Amino acid sequence: MNIFDLSFSELEAALIELGQPKYRAKQIWQNLYVNLVGSFDDMTSLPKRLRETLAERFKFGTLQELISLNSSDKSTTKNLFQLQDGQQIETVLMTYDKRRTVCFSTQAGCAMGCVFCATGQMGFERNLTVGEIVEQVLWFARQLKAKEDRLTNLVVMGMGEPFHNYDNTMAALDRLMDDNGYNFGARRITLSTVGLIPAIERFTAENRRVNLAVSLHAATDDLRTELVPINKRYPIADLIASCRNYVEQSGRRITFELALIAKENDTPDQAHALGKLLKGLLCHVNVIPLNPTTDYAGEKSNRERVDEFKRTLENYGVSCTIRMRRGIDINAGCGQLRKTAEIPVLKL
Questions:
Q1: Handedness of CA 73, 142, 150, 159 (dihedral sign)
Q2: CATH number of 3-57
Q3: In the chain, which residues fall in CATH 1.10.150.530?
Q4: Which of 90, 125, 132, 264 is catalytic?
């Protein structure tokens, strides 16, 4: 069993079963999530025999690093991990400005089928466990700690749809935010969903303090359904109503994300439609020119069209930021993550 799959109460129960006092669970928990040790042997606050027992009983994580790639500007690192059953996932560390951000996965593959997304193009394999999700963050947290640095932000925007794996994703976030563990602040975590309305409503009802982002990508149903097939089940009007309810109930700003595709969703008509759709809503729009993938022929918007799109939204009173394309030389940009032991580097 992967020790990172255990909750604190489950760890306590396992130790009692091993004939150990309950306080050992707190020591182990602190070693895992506060001290960020890299193995059972590193838990020097524990007796040697207990460390040996733990190594016999549990796996210290199940991620196997297959490939690690660095972008040419050294600001982005992408790791390909193999899981215990042979599935593969990708996780990205971004270290630009003063931010240290991990973009982590919640599924191997994705069932949402967004046509421009490399993960969507590969299809769905399975949900990740709580431990597999948490491990991705801790992997890079340990690396940064060795350099006397630390993570500043987490984004649940890797492979998969987080709300399609709701229970495990939320349990992983709770684990990472645990006051007695890694203690990462909710306001520095952003979760991105393609727009699964029942999950958004559950997220709202549970009063989650994690930032919410919705991958919108189009302002009209016909185009969004073409780009994001789940829109057929959860059309824009219903989705925006759910988002408005989230803002009203939480008092928090919501983010919308658009990958701008030349002459598709970057048109003046789309910009005006989006402005009208979001006018008056406490929200922010992030736009980014499309990142290339092997199985989608669409091209990125040029700077002039992106700037005009932004100006149009701002004329409706909608806040908008143009995001920089980072890590695309190693296929680590938004929408580029996929499992493959041979990662082709796309020519830009």
A1: positive
A2: 1.10.150.530
A3: 3-57
A4: 90
Catalytic hit among 114, 243, 334, 342: 334
Q: Which pTM does this prediction carry?
A: 0.93
* Model pLDDT for residues 87-122, shown as the tens digit of each residue: 999 999 999 889 999 999 999 999 999 998 888 888
Note the pLDDT tens digit of each residue in 222-278. Answer: 999 999 999 999 999 999 999 999 999 999 999 999 999 999 999 999 999 999 999
Residues linked to residue 320 through DSSP beta bridges, in sequence order = 285
HEC readout, the chain: CEHHHCCHHHHHHHHHHCCCCCHHHHHHHHHHHCCCCCCHHHCCCCCHHHHHHHHHHCECCCCEEEEEEECCCCCEEEEEEECCCCCEEEEEEECCCCCCEEECCCEEECCCCCCCCHHHHHCEEEECCHHHHHHHHHHHHHHHHHCCCCCCEEEECCCCCHHHHHHHHHHHHHHHHCCCCCCCCHHHEEEEECCCHHHHHHHHHCCCCCEEEEECCCCCHHHHHHHCHHHHCCCHHHHHHHHHHHHHHHCCCEEEEEEEECCCCCCHHHHHHHHHHHCCCCEEEEEEECCCCCCCCCCECCHHHHHHHHHHHHHCCCEEEECCCCCHHHCCCCCCCCCCCCCCCCCC
CATH H-level superfamily of 96-327: Aldolase class I (3.20.20.70)
Amino acid residing at 336: Q
Mean pLDDT of 199-218: 97
The structure tokens listed for 72 are 């040419």
Let me know if 334 is a catalytic residue: yes
According to CATH, where is 3.20.20.70 located in the chain? 96-327
